[in-house]
Amino acid sequence: MDDAVPTIAMWRLSALPRYLPAADIERVIASCDRDTPVGLRDRAAILLMARLGLRAGDVRKMDLNDIDWRHASVGVLGKSRHEVKLPLTQEVGEALLEYLRRGRPPVQDTTRVFVSMSAPWKPLEVSSVSGMVGRAIARAGIESQFRGAHVLRHSAATTMLREGANLQQIGAVLRHRYLDTTAHYAKVDVNRLREIALPWPEVFPC
To answer: Is the pTM of this model over 0.90?
Structure first.
Protein backbone atom coordinates (compact mmCIF):
# COMPACT_ATOMS: atom_id res chain seq x y z
CA MET A 1 0.00 0.00 0.00
CA ASP A 2 2.87 2.36 0.85
CA ASP A 3 4.27 1.87 -2.66
CA ALA A 4 1.17 3.53 -4.10
CA VAL A 5 1.91 6.83 -2.33
CA PRO A 6 4.04 9.06 -4.59
CA THR A 7 7.29 10.44 -3.20
CA ILE A 8 7.33 14.18 -2.61
CA ALA A 9 10.50 15.84 -3.85
CA MET A 10 12.35 17.92 -1.27
CA TRP A 11 14.63 20.20 -3.24
CA ARG A 12 17.57 21.86 -1.50
CA LEU A 13 16.82 25.50 -0.55
CA SER A 14 13.27 25.14 -1.85
CA ALA A 15 11.62 26.56 1.28
CA LEU A 16 11.40 30.28 1.93
CA PRO A 17 13.99 31.54 4.41
CA ARG A 18 12.74 32.18 7.93
CA TYR A 19 12.90 35.84 8.83
CA LEU A 20 11.22 38.59 10.84
CA PRO A 21 10.24 42.01 9.43
CA ALA A 22 12.62 44.84 10.25
CA ALA A 23 10.14 46.43 12.67
CA ASP A 24 9.93 43.18 14.65
CA ILE A 25 13.72 42.94 14.82
CA GLU A 26 13.82 46.39 16.41
CA ARG A 27 11.26 45.26 18.98
CA VAL A 28 13.37 42.20 19.79
CA ILE A 29 16.44 44.37 20.35
CA ALA A 30 14.50 46.88 22.44
CA SER A 31 13.16 44.09 24.67
CA CYS A 32 16.61 43.64 26.24
CA ASP A 33 16.86 45.49 29.57
CA ARG A 34 19.96 47.69 29.48
CA ASP A 35 19.78 48.17 33.25
CA THR A 36 20.71 44.54 33.96
CA PRO A 37 23.86 42.54 33.14
CA VAL A 38 21.77 39.84 31.44
CA GLY A 39 20.01 42.44 29.31
CA LEU A 40 23.31 44.03 28.26
CA ARG A 41 24.72 40.64 27.30
CA ASP A 42 21.63 39.60 25.38
CA ARG A 43 21.40 42.91 23.53
CA ALA A 44 25.04 42.75 22.40
CA ALA A 45 24.67 39.15 21.22
CA ILE A 46 21.37 39.78 19.45
CA LEU A 47 22.78 42.83 17.65
CA LEU A 48 25.69 40.75 16.37
CA MET A 49 23.25 38.26 14.89
CA ALA A 50 20.67 40.76 13.66
CA ARG A 51 23.08 43.30 12.14
CA LEU A 52 26.10 41.21 11.10
CA GLY A 53 24.35 37.91 10.44
CA LEU A 54 26.40 35.90 12.92
CA ARG A 55 25.38 32.35 13.78
CA ALA A 56 24.73 31.21 17.33
CA GLY A 57 27.98 29.26 17.11
CA ASP A 58 29.86 32.42 16.10
CA VAL A 59 28.53 34.21 19.17
CA ARG A 60 29.43 31.28 21.42
CA LYS A 61 33.02 31.12 20.13
CA MET A 62 33.68 34.87 20.03
CA ASP A 63 36.85 35.74 21.92
CA LEU A 64 37.91 39.06 23.38
CA ASN A 65 40.91 38.98 21.03
CA ASP A 66 38.59 38.76 18.01
CA ILE A 67 37.49 42.35 18.55
CA ASP A 68 39.71 44.94 16.86
CA TRP A 69 38.63 48.20 18.43
CA ARG A 70 41.23 50.28 16.59
CA HIS A 71 40.03 49.18 13.14
CA ALA A 72 36.37 48.73 14.16
CA SER A 73 36.14 45.12 13.06
CA VAL A 74 35.46 41.69 14.49
CA GLY A 75 37.03 38.46 13.33
CA VAL A 76 34.69 35.54 12.70
CA LEU A 77 35.76 32.04 11.78
CA GLY A 78 33.73 30.57 8.93
CA LYS A 79 32.77 26.93 8.41
CA SER A 80 35.90 26.46 6.30
CA ARG A 81 38.01 27.68 9.26
CA HIS A 82 38.87 30.82 7.29
CA GLU A 83 38.68 34.01 9.35
CA VAL A 84 36.65 36.90 7.98
CA LYS A 85 36.82 40.45 9.28
CA LEU A 86 33.37 42.01 9.59
CA PRO A 87 32.82 45.73 10.17
CA LEU A 88 31.96 46.59 13.74
CA THR A 89 29.30 49.26 13.33
CA GLN A 90 28.95 51.97 15.94
CA GLU A 91 25.68 50.51 17.24
CA VAL A 92 27.08 47.01 17.66
CA GLY A 93 30.41 48.25 18.99
CA GLU A 94 28.76 50.42 21.62
CA ALA A 95 26.54 47.52 22.72
CA LEU A 96 29.58 45.25 23.08
CA LEU A 97 31.51 47.89 25.00
CA GLU A 98 28.59 48.55 27.33
CA TYR A 99 28.25 44.83 28.05
CA LEU A 100 31.99 44.36 28.66
CA ARG A 101 32.14 47.35 31.00
CA ARG A 102 28.92 46.92 32.95
CA GLY A 103 27.59 43.43 32.30
CA ARG A 104 30.26 40.78 31.85
CA PRO A 105 31.31 39.16 35.15
CA PRO A 106 34.97 39.55 36.20
CA VAL A 107 35.78 36.03 35.07
CA GLN A 108 39.48 35.22 34.75
CA ASP A 109 39.63 31.69 33.35
CA THR A 110 38.11 32.37 29.92
CA THR A 111 38.48 35.02 27.25
CA ARG A 112 35.18 34.18 25.60
CA VAL A 113 33.05 37.29 25.22
CA PHE A 114 29.69 35.82 26.20
CA VAL A 115 29.45 33.96 29.48
CA SER A 116 26.78 32.87 31.93
CA MET A 117 25.71 35.38 34.55
CA SER A 118 25.83 33.10 37.57
CA ALA A 119 28.77 31.33 39.15
CA PRO A 120 30.53 29.25 38.08
CA TRP A 121 30.80 31.56 35.09
CA LYS A 122 31.12 29.57 31.89
CA PRO A 123 31.07 30.37 28.16
CA LEU A 124 27.59 30.13 26.69
CA GLU A 125 26.53 27.09 24.71
CA VAL A 126 24.77 27.31 21.33
CA SER A 127 21.51 26.26 22.99
CA SER A 128 21.86 29.15 25.45
CA VAL A 129 22.28 31.63 22.60
CA SER A 130 19.20 30.27 20.83
CA GLY A 131 17.25 30.39 24.08
CA MET A 132 18.27 34.01 24.53
CA VAL A 133 16.76 34.86 21.15
CA GLY A 134 13.58 32.93 21.86
CA ARG A 135 13.04 34.75 25.14
CA ALA A 136 13.62 38.13 23.49
CA ILE A 137 11.08 37.35 20.76
CA ALA A 138 8.56 36.33 23.43
CA ARG A 139 9.21 39.49 25.47
CA ALA A 140 8.64 41.59 22.36
CA GLY A 141 5.22 40.00 21.97
CA ILE A 142 5.97 38.74 18.47
CA GLU A 143 3.92 35.81 17.22
CA SER A 144 6.30 33.65 15.19
CA GLN A 145 6.94 29.96 14.82
CA PHE A 146 10.62 30.78 14.33
CA ARG A 147 12.32 31.56 17.65
CA GLY A 148 15.86 30.30 17.21
CA ALA A 149 19.00 32.31 16.63
CA HIS A 150 19.05 31.55 12.88
CA VAL A 151 15.96 33.70 12.30
CA LEU A 152 18.08 36.78 13.11
CA ARG A 153 20.72 35.75 10.55
CA HIS A 154 18.05 35.25 7.89
CA SER A 155 16.46 38.57 8.83
CA ALA A 156 19.80 40.37 8.50
CA ALA A 157 20.27 38.97 4.98
CA THR A 158 16.72 39.87 3.99
CA THR A 159 17.14 43.43 5.27
CA MET A 160 20.42 43.87 3.38
CA LEU A 161 18.77 42.66 0.19
CA ARG A 162 15.86 45.07 0.53
CA GLU A 163 18.24 47.95 1.22
CA GLY A 164 19.95 47.39 -2.12
CA ALA A 165 22.88 45.08 -1.33
CA ASN A 166 23.65 42.58 -4.07
CA LEU A 167 23.98 38.85 -3.52
CA GLN A 168 27.77 38.94 -3.62
CA GLN A 169 27.86 41.53 -0.83
CA ILE A 170 25.37 39.59 1.28
CA GLY A 171 27.26 36.36 0.70
CA ALA A 172 30.50 38.00 1.85
CA VAL A 173 28.91 39.15 5.12
CA LEU A 174 27.24 35.79 5.76
CA ARG A 175 30.41 33.92 4.71
CA HIS A 176 28.62 31.73 2.19
CA ARG A 177 30.88 29.55 0.06
CA TYR A 178 28.40 29.31 -2.82
CA LEU A 179 26.26 31.98 -4.44
CA ASP A 180 23.22 29.71 -4.73
CA THR A 181 23.04 29.64 -0.93
CA THR A 182 22.85 33.43 -0.86
CA ALA A 183 20.38 33.45 -3.76
CA HIS A 184 17.98 31.65 -1.43
CA TYR A 185 17.20 35.05 0.12
CA ALA A 186 16.17 36.59 -3.19
CA LYS A 187 12.90 34.67 -2.94
CA VAL A 188 11.66 36.91 -0.13
CA ASP A 189 12.12 40.15 -2.08
CA VAL A 190 8.60 40.15 -3.48
CA ASN A 191 8.76 43.73 -4.81
CA ARG A 192 11.80 42.99 -6.98
CA LEU A 193 10.32 39.73 -8.16
CA ARG A 194 7.21 41.61 -9.29
CA GLU A 195 9.38 43.84 -11.48
CA ILE A 196 10.73 40.91 -13.47
CA ALA A 197 7.72 38.59 -13.32
CA LEU A 198 5.93 37.91 -16.59
CA PRO A 199 2.14 38.36 -16.69
CA TRP A 200 0.12 35.18 -16.32
CA PRO A 201 -1.15 34.10 -19.77
CA GLU A 202 -4.85 34.63 -20.26
CA VAL A 203 -6.86 31.43 -20.23
CA PHE A 204 -9.50 31.14 -22.94
CA PRO A 205 -12.50 28.83 -22.65
CA CYS A 206 -12.39 25.70 -24.81
So the answer is: no
Residue 10 pairs with which residues in a beta bridge? none
Which run of H or E residues covers position 163? none
Question: Length of the chain, please?
Answer: 206
- Angle in degrees, CA 166, 177, 114, rounded to 5: 90
Q: Is 184 a catalytic residue?
A: no
> Annotated catalytic residue: which of 79, 102, 177, 192?
79
- From the candidates 18, 43, 176, 184, which is the catalytic residue? 176
Q: So what's the pLDDT on residue 91?
A: 95
Q: What DSSP line would sit under 79-139, residue for residue? A: TTS-EEEEE--HHHHHHHHHHHHHTS----S--BS-B-SSSSP-BPPHHHHHHHHHHHHHH
Is 82 a known active-site residue? Answer: no
In tens, the pLDDT along 22-47 reads 899 899 999 999 999 999 999 999 99
Does 192 qualify as catalytic in the annotation? no
List C-alpha distances in Å: 186 to 19, 93, 131: 12, 29, 28
The residues spanned by each domain of the chain are: 22-186
CATH 3.40.50.150 assigned to 22-186: no
Identified catalytic residue from 18, 51, 147, 153:
153
